[in-house]
Please model this.
Amino acid sequence: MNATWNGDADRVAELVEQARNHAGNKTYNDEAALSFSIQLAYYAAHKYYTDILKLDTGKGYADVVYIPSFKYSDNPVLLIELIYNHDVNVVIEQIRRQKYLERLAHYKGNILIIGINYDKDVLSTDPEFKHHSCMIEKA
Model:
């Protein structure tokens, strides 16, 4: 949670990678497996948030949204969008283009957009081996 709240995208990507390695899902390279890994990585969020999977935004579905509980209402909304084999900038652009934030308008100014990419083609022999990348923006 701290890495997300602090905007440390590299650390978030690292933690998602660790969660993905522990997920033990046979369908490693699909969106459901990535979504499960996100939920595992953000397990501690349940103390502070209510999670909504596939939030209907009118022009698409936000993959995972964490809405702060009443007790922690100062926490930002976490809007997490997942993507495969693309630059994480693409996912942030998608959120804005599809107007996902309009569905969360009453939280404006207190939303973190978290784009997470999984690149299945990264070779494990690469010294910079990491399948996941992340971008975090305030909205």
Observations:
- The radius of gyration is 14 Å.
- Strands lie at 49-56, 61-68, 77-84, 111-118, 132-138.
- The first strand starts at residue 49 and ends at 56.
- The chain has a mean pLDDT of 82.
